[in-house]
Amino acid sequence: MRLLLVEDEIDIQSFLRRSLEETGYEVEVAGDGKTAERLAIDTPFDILIVDLGLPDQDGISLILRLRQLGLSAPVLILSARRSVDDRVRGLEQGGDDYLTKPFALAELLARLRNLLKRNSPATKEPTRLHVQDLELDLLRREAMRGGRVLQLTQQEFVLLEYLCRNAGRVVTRSMILDEVWGMRIQPDTNVVDVHIYRLRGKVDGAGQQPLIRTMRGVGYVLRDR
């Protein structure tokens, strides 16, 4: 998988390049917009990571220019700009996802996987999800555990579906806010913790083996075995 990393901070650039290559990506790096544009024109990339604070231009200007040149690969914006307005502007101007600094490497890798999956050729979507004895019927919007129907609210079902689709992977609170609530809520809210608490009471209740696990200081994981 070929990736273009556009980042001018040498420490972050070196760390990300090494980490991404260890994960299996073939990485090209650029420290400014002009170099990034030349590389993107000359080489087909599967995905890009673009920092907004480049020395010669704003990263959003670079993204817009690449889109005008016909770039269709997904772009993950990496930036220290944390306001909602900045994130919305980045997404509206050609970015496909937005991650603020400082960031966890595990979250960055998960976002890359999701972007690549989202942009892969369409495949037939399953209508049911299974994790151990937990089953979700996506058409009827119904969840069952051990054959017992769970009485979930609509938001709880969406949250559980997201956990099931990422079974075995740790998902952070910010990832859940992005995917389940669409970044409509401030990141310091406790809405995720409240919904996880209620969901755990329904999924892991009645003496069932616990499936939803809290990774303290990181996020949550739905155990797949």
Structure, described:
It contains eight helices and twelve strands. It is an alpha/beta fold and 225 residues long. It folds into two domains: 2-118, 3-Layer(aba) Sandwich (Rossmann fold); 128-222, Arc Repressor Mutant, subunit A (Orthogonal Bundle), CATH 1.10.10.10. The protein has a five-stranded parallel beta sheet, with helices on both faces. The model has no long low-confidence stretch (mean pLDDT 88).
Morphology call: elongated
Helix content: 40-55%
Reading the helices and strands in chain order gives EHEHEHEHEHEEEEHEHHEE
> What is the CATH architecture annotation of the largest domain?
3-Layer(aba) Sandwich
Most strands sheet = 5 strands, parallel
What's the gyration radius in Å? 19 Å
Q: Strand-residue fraction?
A: 15-25%
CATH topology of the largest domain: Rossmann fold
Q: Give the end-to-end Cα distance, rounded to a whole number of Å.
A: 29 Å
The CATH superfamily title of the largest domain: Response regulator
Task: Tell me the count of domains.
Answer: 2
Low-pLDDT runs of 5+ residues are none
CATH C-level category of the largest domain:
Alpha Beta
> Care to count the β-strands?
12
Oligomer: single chain
